[in-house]
Amino acid sequence: MPDTDTISRGQTELKVERPKLHKVILVNDDFTPRAFVVRVLKAEFRMGEERARQVMTTAHQRGACVVGVFTRELAETKATNAVDLARKEGYPLLFTTEPEE
Length: 101
Ligand code: TYC
Fold this sequence. Notes:
By secondary structure, the chain is of the alpha+beta class. The chain has three helices and five strands; from the N terminus they run βββααβαβ.
């Protein structure tokens, strides 16, 4: 999909930029319990049990997994909230964000 649209109003043409979407990425570590990762995915990313387990398992096996794609602000808020939940329990769990290509 192109990242700009052109809107015509009579003689006037406006170029409208589509905001770039950002991925939230779950990063594996050796310390956070699997059940806690699943709990955070369900709480912060509104996943059901099965999807949350799949995402956790993929990160555990491959080192990282894309959790979802959001506007930049929403991606950053969700990643921050998820990391805060982990820090409150003393776990090093990490979520990062990066712009989509
Ligand atoms: N590797 C962790 C363990 O064996 C579980 C885990 C999975 C941690 C995914 C982080 O993103 C993660 N307890």
